[in-house]
UniProtKB/TrEMBL annotation:
It comes from the Bacteria. The keyword Hydrolase applies. PANTHER family: HYDROLASE ALPHA/BETA FOLD FAMILY, PIMELOYL-[ACYL-CARRIER PROTEIN] METHYL ESTER ESTERASE. One of its GO terms (molecular function) is hydrolase activity. It holds the Pfam family Abhydrolase_1. This is Alpha/beta hydrolase. It comes from Streptomyces cynarae. Residues 29-260 form the AB hydrolase-1 domain. Signal peptide: none annotated.
Length: 277
């Protein structure tokens, strides 16, 4: 687990957050947001590539990855949007470039539209943004989270492995799958896994969905063409709602585009971020 470490800590209103910075401090800042049930680890290759020309900030949301996981913790989209705004203030970033995946897309959108967070430009990668969302499995866990928390550890691990694996189209390398699953095992990981699903309420995106036409910053929307978690049609719909949004489908990639097509996604992001904004 030593190939990706977050060395800094920030105490937020939803617990301690682990974060780190790559690249030179005098370069234009880029902030990367992960989705669920992932962590900043999914950005490792892309973060290192972007750090050649940018100052790159990575972080694990409360309840995820290396960050705090605790009983009663608020890890909802509402809380994460507030926490991201707190973190931007802590970093002293006034108008960073922001790249957000999945659940992180909703976090970035809420921070921008509801909490006044300003971005120079926004890149969304298979974001959670439009109703309806949540697979049948996701909804089943939401309704019975307390039951799932009591699964024997071996059954819980098998369930998480199968769920995470389904985010990839070509399949994940075993070592990568191990790393993605590890934060959700044992204590407090198992309870945290079901907690974040139980709190993933669609009302937090319903609250902002009618505001997407207000987004006036340059916006890129990337989408894995083989995404079975959120179909590409949702991406095209989102692109039609955000003024002048650029649509970038990624071939042969599922929902976890960072793993399935890292080179293609990196190229699309670099081209977008290098434009004058």
């Amino acid at each position: 687990m030593t190939e990706w470490q977050l060395t800094q800590t920030f105490t937020s209103t939803s617990g301690d957050i682990r974060w780190d910075r790559l690249g030179h401090s005098d370069r234009q800042p880029v902030v990367l947001l992960h989705g669920t049930p992932f962590s900043s680890y999914v950005w490792r290759a892309i973060a290192r590539s972007l750090a050649r020309d940018h100052q790159v900030f990575v972080w694990d949301m409360p309840g995820y990855g290396l960050s705090e996981k605790s009983t009663g913790q608020d890890v909802s989209l509402a809380a994460q949007g507030r926490v991201f705004t707190e973190l931007l203030n802590h970093w002293g970033l006034e108008e960073p470039l922001v790249v957000a995946h999945d659940f992180g897309g909703a976090v970035a959108l809420r921070a921008h539209l509801l909490h006044g967070a300003r971005y120079r430009a926004l890149a969304l990668v298979d974001p959670v943004a439009l109703a309806p969302w949540g697979s049948p499995f996701f909804r089943l866990v939401q309704e019975h989270a307390e039951v799932f928390e009591q699964l024997p550890p071996a059954l819980h691990e098998a369930l998480v492995r199968e769920y995470v694996s389904s985010a990839s189209s070509p399949g994940l390398h075993p070592a990568v799958l191990d790393r993605l699953v590890h934060p959700w095992l044992g204590d407090p990981g198992q309870a945290a896994f079901y907690r974040q699903i139980a709190q993933a309420d669609q009302r937090w995106t319903d609250e902002i969905q009618d505001r997407y036409a207000q987004i006036s910053i340059p916006t890129l929307i990337c989408w894995g063409e083989n995404d079975t978690w959120i179909p590409p049609a949702k991406g095209r719909e989102l692109a039609s709602l955000i003024p002048d949004a650029q649509w970038e489908p990624i071939a042969d990639a599922g929902h976890l585009v960072q793993e399935d097509a890292s080179a293609e996604l990196t190229a699309a992001l670099i081209a977008f971020l290098r434009r004058p904004h």
